[in-house]
Amino acid sequence: xxxxxxxxxxxxxxxxxxxxxxxxxxxxxxxxxxxxxxxxxxxxxxxxxxxxxxxxxxxxxxxxxxxxxxxxxxxxxxxxxxxxxxxxxxxxxxxxxxxxxxxxxxxxxxxxxxxxxxxxxxxxxxxxxxxxxxxxxxxxxxxxxxxxxxxxxxxxxxxxxxxxxxxxxxxxxxxxxxxxxxxxxxxxxxxxxxxxxxxxxxxxxxxxxxxxxxxxxxxxxxxxxxxxxxxxxxxxxxxxxxxxxxxxxxxxxxxxxxxxxxxxxxxxxxxxxxxxxxxxxxxxxxxxxxxxxxxxxxxxxxxxxxxxxxxxxxxxxxxxxxxxxxxxxxxxxxxxxxxxxxxxxxxxxxxxx
Length: 353
Ligand SMILES: [Zn+2]
Ligand SMILES: [Zn+2]
Fold this sequence. Notes:
Elements (H helix, E strand, L loop, with lengths): L1 H7 L1 H9 L3 H27 L4 E2 L1 H12 L6 H13 L14 H10 L18 H8 L1 H49 L20 H6 L6 H6 L15 H11 L3 E2 L6 H21 L7 H30 L1 H32 L1
Antiparallel strand pairs: 1-2
The protein binds zinc ion (2 copies).
């Protein structure tokens, strides 16, 4: 609340009177990216989901800069987050969206009505001495890395006024920006966007949200395949966190990157598209017009046929692995093309309905 208040009052007044030079702007972005990525790449994908393994320099830096976001120590953050995935959209979900947008965004932190749940789901992290060290010295690390360092760098650049600028811009305003970026994942990413993989929970995919959240906006995919190191699973989807992890692998600082197979992802999309189609065809409240119904039925028949062909092909592939590999690969590529076409047809039919 303090950082939000100062960012909305003191910071604009200060900028109006004294302006910010290029050094201060660069420092803001450096701290924003370093601390933001420490949450998405470190706290979230590495520590909470074990989506890859990282060597100690990566763990150390993400723990130092992660603390500087003032979002709690990694143990507490991960414990809450694992509880969110396990009990999503229920009372045991710490940031349960069914209690309202503001509860999921920040209310759950401001009004802790229930007793603090035990950290009983982070036994694996307790074995990491760096995580335990961060837990022990969390507050001093957060203050030194988050506030003292930008103030000190500002002092080196331009004396005491530089120190004040560093503290206000790369310190306070940056904490505010990173915190709300993270909170958006719990609020907006469970409200805005589509659900191409499953409608089992409220998590949604949104390219727009991905831009503001270092790629975490593909949240529907993430809730279905939480161990994948990618959230934006398609190569073109904006996900700087996945690109950073990939780069760390090339630098030999990360390994064992976990990926869900393309077939599994496509099957999931296929099942979800068919479920949506059946729902639409069964809807009697608004009778569909002749041509639309025909389009939907065609699409449904095609998807059904593709699903069956896929199952048969997989069985065949499993039996004669070596002999049929080229044949199976070509057939899978063809099915993928047909599925995409069926999706387009489905979309067109839905728009007409
Ligand atoms: Zn979520
Ligand atoms: Zn997650």
